[in-house]
């Protein structure tokens, strides 16, 4: 029981404390008597809530990409179809290696192509495929 609480403690600190503080400050802004304390409490509470929302929105693609990688990496996919069976919410387009953050030094051989999978605006996954859709190399930027 203690070890499960220790594992949950960082999650509670990161995901519960900021919105709780923000909500407390916003509610306190309606209860305080002095105008400057109401204003200060409301502003700080709003800033806490907005900053928390921005942080969650910013890190969500990374967390989703990490979760999907924890599924496809152990499976060691060999073909495009096998890899794409694990990817959801990704868009894809073919790119040149020099447009890849991690695979820019890869030299494409005849018949090979590099496909970039994007999750929203971030967490690219660059995959080099042969002409018969076999995976040659995989480059991830969220390692």
Description:
With 143 residues, the protein is of the alpha+beta class. It has two domains: 2-59; 76-140. The chain has four helices and four strands. It has helices at 2-15, 17-31, 35-75, 80-84; strands at residues 90-95, 113-119, 122-129, 135-140. Strands 1-2-3-4 form a four-stranded antiparallel β-sheet. Strand 2 and strand 3 (122-129) form a beta hairpin. Helix 2 packs antiparallel against helix 3. The longest helix has 41 residues, at 35-75. The protein starts with a helix and ends with a strand.
What topology does this entry show?
Elements: H1 2-15, H2 17-31, H3 35-75, H4 80-84, E1 90-95, E2 113-119, E3 122-129, E4 135-140
Antiparallel strand pairs: 1-2, 2-3, 3-4
Q: Structural class, judged by helices and strands?
A: alpha+beta
Helix proportion of residues, in percent? 40-55%
- Order of strands in the sheet with most strands: 1-2-3-4
| Beta strands, count | 4
Low-pLDDT ranges: none
Q: Averaging pLDDT over every residue, what do you get? A: 86
Summarize the main sheet. 4 strands, antiparallel
| C-alpha end-to-end distance | 32 Å
Outline of this structure?
Helix content is 52%, strand content 19%. The protein has 143 residues and is α+β, with helices and mostly antiparallel strands. The chain folds into two domains: 2-59; 76-140.
What attributes does this structure have?
2 domains, 143 residues, single chain, four-stranded antiparallel sheet, 4 strands, 4 helices, alpha+beta
């Amino acid at each position: 029981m203690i070890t499960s609480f220790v594992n949950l403690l960082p999650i509670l600190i990161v995901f519960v404390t900021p919105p709780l503080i923000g909500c407390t400050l916003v509610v306190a802004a309606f209860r305080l008597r002095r105008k400057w304390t109401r204003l200060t409490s409301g502003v700080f509470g709003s800033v806490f809530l907005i900053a928390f929302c921005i942080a969650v929105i910013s890190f969500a693609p990374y967390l989703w990409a990490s979760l999907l990688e924890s599924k496809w990496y152990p499976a060691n996919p060999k073909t495009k179809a096998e890899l794409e069976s694990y990817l959801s919410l990704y868009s894809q387009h073919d790119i040149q290696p020099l447009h890849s953050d991690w695979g820019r030094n890869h030299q494409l051989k005849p018949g090979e192509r590099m496909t970039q999978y994007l999750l929203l605006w971030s967490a690219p996954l660059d995959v080099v495929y042969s002409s018969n859709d076999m995976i040659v190399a995989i480059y991830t930027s969220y390692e």
